[in-house]
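Reposting from the mailing list since nobody answered there.

I have sequence plus structure tokens for a pair of proteins and want to know whether others read the tokens the same way I do. The first protein:
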Amino acid sequence: MKRIKVLHYDAFSSKPDKGNPAGVILNGDHLKETEMQELARKAGFNETAFPAHSDSADFKIRYFTPGHEMDLCGHGTIAAVYALKENGLLNEEKEMIVETNAGMLPIQLTTTSNELLVTMRQAEPVFKPFKGSKADLMASIGLAEEDLAGDLPIQYGSTGNWTLLVPVKELRAFERMVPHNERFPDLLKEIPKASVHPFCLETYDSAAHMHGRHFSSPFSGTVEDPVTGTASGVMGAYYKKYIAKNEETEISLIIEQGNEIGKEGRVRVKVAQDHGRLHVEMTGNAVFVKEFEIAL
């Protein structure tokens, strides 16, 4: 029996037990895929990240929910970079390339007076229309069709992982949300394994531009993700494409999430438009919480 050390970081917050928790296991090169999946299940985080050697990038990261492997995970990436940095496994370079199943992603490190900020380029955003029942979709998160912001489209979006972006009219509706994740695959006929990400333009924090919640696909083995980096990135792209479409070529947003479940965090998103193509960058911080061991 092996004992594997797990590092617990909370991403998108500087306060322990806020933001989005992630596990990081640093000896990914020595683990089989089945072992990674088992460790992620036992660790119990929405995602556990496994940094490993890469022949074509500075390093590679694989991401596992308790139920399956993910191509990309924003908060898992930030947690992994923090863990590598704080354990002396990164050099002093401020820019690096990370290999993921979603492609090669540039990472930039910025040190401020009191924290390390990690900026990751996400995959180019892709959108697809939702063609299902709006009433059934809203019922699956405990709301009514009248809660939709009718002037904005419901769209599947991806900057590495598919999620369904659902525009909601008022912030107060988020307190009433109750996800029925088991219904999602039948409702999301175009992309049955997508998650559901309701959002609105009202916020708790006057400095924020968008508020969201993130309800997981039932295949992931989790119910809700507290603060979601990849979904925040595609929210920023949605904002640029459908809301701020006539504004400047580059926008910077603060996206808040996690307030309803006591895990509030913030994601900084920058979206630049170049010859009709959108480029998305997501920035966040993290804080070490604790380490523990899992028997394998």
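The second protein, same order (residues first, tokens after):
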Amino acid sequence: MFHRFRSAAAGLLLATALTVPAQAQTAAKTDSLNLRKIYDEALLRGQSYDNLRYLCQNIGARLSGSPQAEQAVQWGKQTMEKLGFDRVYLQEVMVPHWVRGAKEKASFKAGKGKSQDAAVCALGGSVGTGGKLKAKVVEVRSWDELAKLPDDQVKGRFVFFNRPFDDRLIEPGSAYGGAVDQRGRGPIEAAKRGAVGALVRSMTSAKDDFPHTGTTRYDDKVTKIPAAALSTLAADRLSAALKQDAGLEFELEMACQTLPDVKSYNVVGEIKGAKFPAEIITVGGHLDSWDLAQGAHDDGTGCVQSMEALRLLLATGLRPERTVRAVLFMNEENGNRGGIKYAELAKAAGEKHLAAIESDGGGFTPRGFSVEGSPATVAKLQRWAPLLAPYHADGIGPGHGGTDIGPLKDQAQALIGYDCDSQRYFDLHHTAADTFDKVHRRELELGGAGMASLIYLLSKYGL
């Protein structure tokens, strides 16, 4: 995401070679050769793609609390044990258990026209409809629009939140951030006004009939109403129909429910540091996924890349000087309890985290890393951009680290997010289309190599 820095990094590499002392030039040459070893191993003998194939095709969707999530925990543990890490263990964590139930159904009819089915899915955590729920619809695109509506235009209706992605933005993640509050707050704000349900436009700029799920929220002080996502095409059709017939009725049927919490686990694999074992570098992704597909890009890729990063260090003989952990976090999608638990246990044990790295933006072509930390910390990481430039992973700048590692903010010197090309990510995110066949082997393996390279540098030089 920060690839604009690449040409500058190449120039910096040349300038550095002309100005630094001979000893530093020797170290830089050694580091360059070692990074080449990492990339050669990844591209010729990488294991991320095969591991992802098994996770997606043999286990599949892994929503917290599900039998598949438990299978994924055991798979993660066994895989890391086979990779020969110094220590592999589980961290117990209680997670929410929401189930979708039978496939959702929705339809509407404008005027005297034919009834139209609408591609729809329940938002994560939603209550069910208790049979068929039929009501009129009011469409809004902002919180101000909702606030200005008279009560009689909201009460007893579905509120249809139809604010689209802002496609003028270059980074789709920014467009996502500008629209996702509808999904999170929509049911609460609609219920406050007496609505019977919330309909939300899917969080994507893609025009298709794949509805996007994702977590929604409730307030115990406000009535819980059913909340569903419409595909972008269904949202467009409903919006057009409302212009023809403002009194049309929308029918929704959802059988989702929340069951008691379930015991689950983070999976942790560790290589002990050869010189500074008390200093820890964590790298991870989240093992859980939504229930509509295989959770390939979100976030199977992050899990296999994190394990692969450690394997690459061992396979190339670059045993880290600081302790490195690969963590497969549980429950990022609908609670982040795995990330919270990991940070709690680290704090209770008095551990010192140098840095934490997260891959949760898909397994697309690498671009670099975004950093949460002080300006001085960001600058220290940017000094390695010339070494990463040959692999197009040198875009290093301030930005978001990640949800799973977020709870470590007060314990780690830097939270680092792996950045890759995000233009296609939200076409697949939280949909039935997030399957193994959408992942490109070389892109995936390059990402793991980039993460391993940064770990190698962090482990050798610290911050």
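Reply #1 (J.P.):
I read it the same way you do. The domain at 3-97+260-461 is CATH 3.40.630.10 (Aminopeptidase).
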